[in-house]
Specification:
Length: about 290
């Protein structure tokens, strides 16, 4: 199953959506080939095949292919192409494809340091999607609004996420975001409510490279072990595991390394790592 930086809610239903739609054999074969390449981590090939599948396709076939093309471009860090393709998918009449494309557009904007626009896309996704997907999108919209410095909008999104969880019986097992992935944690994007302060203005004034935020200590340790080779190779110090409470008062184990006096210097170090799962986050006190 394709994943977008540990965000299965953005892509998990795509194969099921394909199975439920009437598609031409040629379009289905082309999209299946793109998905196969995506699953294998061959994002250049996935993008090429998805764009090819769009040619001559109409309706749901074209929109689903655009979605895969956009996700593949995102994984290649070609954010302009990703936004172009995902905008096509976001206009789909299929609520699942549209909602997940809007959510992915939010992530693209966050990757471009455009949190206010990303928050709008994620909030729109939350209103289109249902159940766990809606809750996840609203929660991440809240995080994006925090990054944009709009705390009141962030709290409205967090409240909406909680209301969806309450009404739909969604499990509270989702952790905050970061990198690393694996069960008990998610990756990609940014973490919300686990810092004790605004993400736009961290209390310490310092930044770190964040590997992930996990609800399970075993997963946190595994991610920390994987991150040590990056930290050691680039002289970025020890990898830290910091227990924190998120906006829902759940204990999360946040994995970070590095210590930077500005976001710019942290981003420069992250580019040298060439690890797309990691993000920049406020430095947390252990």
């Amino acid at each position: 199953m394709p994943r977008l930086l540990g965000l299965p809610w953005v892509v998990a239903a795509l194969l099921m959506a394909m199975a439920g739609c009437e598609s031409t054999p040629k379009a289905s074969a082309g999209l299946a080939g793109a998905l196969s390449e995506y699953d294998a981590g061959r994002y250049d090939a996935a993008h090429t095949k998805a764009v090819a599948a769009m040619q001559g396709a109409t309706g749901a076939d074209r929109e689903q292919a655009a979605y895969v093309a956009g996700l593949s471009a995102y994984r290649k860090r070609d954010y302009i192409e990703a936004e172009h393709r995902l905008t096509t998918a976001a206009a789909s009449s299929d609520r699942t494809v549209s909602g997940r494309a809007k959510a992915a557009l939010g992530l693209v904007c966050l990757a471009q340091n455009r949190p206010a626009t990303g928050a709008v896309h994620l909030a729109e996704a939350a209103r289109v999607l249902d159940g766990p997907d809606a809750s996840e999108a609203a929660f991440r919209a809240g995080v994006a609004y925090q990054l944009a410095g709009d705390e009141s909008a962030a709290q409205r999104q967090f409240a909406y996420a909680r209301s969806v969880e309450s009404s739909s019986g969604v499990s509270g097992g989702r952790a905050s975001t970061g990198g690393g992935g694996g069960s008990g944690g998610t990756s990609g994007g940014t973490s919300g409510g686990a810092t004790g302060g605004s993400w736009a203005n961290p209390p310490s004034g310092l930044f770190a490279i964040q590997v992930g935020a996990f609800s399970d200590m075993t997963n946190a340790r595994s991610a920390a072990d994987q991150a040590r080779r990056f930290a050691d190779r680039h002289g970025l110090g020890e990898v830290r595991i910091i227990p924190k409470s998120d906006a829902r008062q759940r204990t999360l184990y946040v994995v970070q390394f590095g210590r930077f006096t500005s976001r710019t210097s942290a981003e420069a170090a992250l580019r040298q790592l060439a690890e797309p799962r990691y993000i920049i986050a406020p430095l947390m006190a252990g």
